[in-house]
């Protein structure tokens, strides 16, 4: 098969930032995706509906038909009234929980999850999805174990105490997360990034440290990479596309204390097409990228289409922006698919 026309996909986990960086990166996403779930971890986190609407308007100024699906940043300031307001807003899709300090701009995150069950209860009541960065931030827990420990210490309990709460376990990176989600109720789903499918920790650490492959959750062993790949291509509607594309400037990545984040938005759907084809699963690509996420969030499926053609496509070495240079995921590499607006 050399040509594929699919329903225009949605990116169910995306970082767009603000200002000049936003103006550059939104163009990449808009070429391929009709909608994206936009993360709230700005320098000033998007903590309430008013801030989310301001951010929505800022994004809309830089795009045309693309529709941002906004999230609020989970803090203890969330009142029942705000949750009700968020659930009634057509612009807001859910609330993103970051354990404090776990990743980029998460210092305002939650210090003690178990003290916030009253908020989960309200989210369950108003059927507002909870999006989770599922890692513990504990200096005593090895960074490679933080996702599994999060499941064991928190997620299992949350899912059993709040059985009707819809939860998206974001950017899963372990076989443990794959089995947890597979065995949970239909209320629990997960997003999968291209980088957690295409890489394992050797790609970060062998032959010299590769700062552009550094992300959180950190890349794991090959056995986990394989489990995440198999979940993505399985056709199981609990697993859907979320790139976690997270732009940082080149100098912030190539640093003694480099930022976590992989910028994949420039070629995202093409990377997934490459993966699905190499694994004889191209027939599962449309479900993963265009149906399952929309269905989970109770959104209509997109009407517009995207054409993918099998042809050599060289990923840019570098992307300029008024804010500085961005190095995309797999810079300079050749992939076999290219996308075109149909
Ligand atoms: O690698 C990551 N980058 N993981 C996250 O959880 C956050 C993101 C970012 O905002 O840069
Ligand atoms: Zn993210």
If you had to describe this structure to a student in words, what would you say it looks like?
With 342 residues, the chain is an alpha/beta fold. It has one domain (3-341): TIM Barrel (Alpha-Beta Barrel). 34% of the residues lie in helices and 19% in strands. The chain contains twelve helices and 13 strands. It has helices at 19-32, 49-60, 80-88, 117-125, 146-161, 175-183, 194-198, 202-205, 222-232, 250-253, 268-278, 285-296; strands spanning 3-7, 10-14, 35-38, 67-73, 92-97, 130-132, 167-169, 188-192, 239-241, 305-314, 319-321, 324-326, 334-341. The chain is globular and about 50 Å long. The two termini are 17 Å apart. The model has no long low-confidence stretch (mean pLDDT 97). Zinc ion is lined by residues 13, 15, 39, 244, 246.
- How many beta-strand runs? 13
Mean pLDDT: 97
- Proportion of residues in helical segments: 25-40%
List bound small molecules. (4S)-2,6-dioxohexahydropyrimidine-4-carboxylic acid, zinc ion
Radius of gyration: 19 Å
In CATH's first tier, which class applies?
Alpha Beta
Spatial order of the strands in the main sheet?
2-3-4-5-6-7-8-9
